[in-house]
Amino acid sequence: MPARMAEPLTLVPVGVGAAYGRPGEAQSAYLVAAGERRVCLDLGAGTFNLLQALVRPERLDAVLVSHLHPDHCADLFALRVYMVWGPGAGSRVRLWGPPGLRDRLVAFAGEEGWDEAIAFATLEPPGGELDLGGGLRLRYAEVPHLHPTFAVRVDWAGRSVCYGADCAPNEVLPRLASGCDILVAECSFGAGGSGSGASHLDAREAAAMARAAGVRRLLLTHCYPEFDRDAALEAARSVFPGPVEWAEAGRAVRA
What is the pLDDT of residues 201-233, one digit of tens each? Predict the structure, then answer.
């Protein structure tokens, strides 16, 4: 896919896997293209290499990390190496993330290079708004998962995409996603039946939030490999009246 993607607003899932996935499946990352601007939402393990097929990382307008679980941010280590010693040397990427993100990265990999490669900024609970210029606006709100975890809405040129990150059923995400063209919602437990009590969704729960938000289209993602994905689609479609499908790595979806 060429670096310039379809206008006006395009979502490309880079990685769609959960904390462990199917063979060949990378973890969470989503590239949003708004005209000439590019924003990457999360950067889980295995996604940085795939991202380079879509955009030169040093040309990203922003990277936003939803929360501090490794399947959503592990490839920030690869980004650092690329930006300090690789082709991105001499450039700097803007990175927004939860409080404590930089400290955790430094604790694991050491101090060297982070601040020359990455301009860190903090997403503060319970939420807020980022103006990236040119009419590109991001809104974020805390959802129930690891504290704090942020769902993110991207608005540009009258179109909108909302990324639900990881979360349990809640009322915040439908408010944030209200009227969106696309909602990307995790579906960790497929059609349901995990019983683990973890702060994640199954297909019916994801679809219920999409219906409450009145979104146009629902993309399911972040499903553990032991769950039947066809059954999950059927369950979601029994609740949400609009189009429902799985987010597929590398397949662009226009808002």
Answer: 999 999 999 999 999 999 999 999 999 999 999
SS3 state at 82: helix
Q: Which tokens is 239 given?
A: 């609740």
Binning the chain into helix, strand and coil, the percentages to the nearest 5 are 25, 30, 50
Q: Is residue 4 part of a domain?
A: no
Q: Which domain holds residue 215?
A: 9-254
Distance separating alpha carbons of residues 5 and 25, to the nearest angstrom: 23
**Could you give the count of Cα atoms lying within 13 Å of 44 in the half-sphere of its Cβ?**
25
Integer Rg of the chain from CA: 17
CA distance 255 to 177: 13
Let me know if residue 2 belongs to a domain.
Answer: no
Using the structure block, give the residue that is written with the tokens 């504290």.
147
pLDDT tens digits for range 180-195: 999 999 999 999 876 6
CB-based contacts of 153, cutoff 8 Å, min separation 6: 138, 139, 140, 160, 161, 162, 163, 176, 177, 180
Count of structural domains, the chain: 1
CA distance 140 to 66: 9
What pLDDT, in 10s, does the model give residues 51-74? 999 999 999 999 999 999 999 999
CATH number, position 205? 3.60.15.10
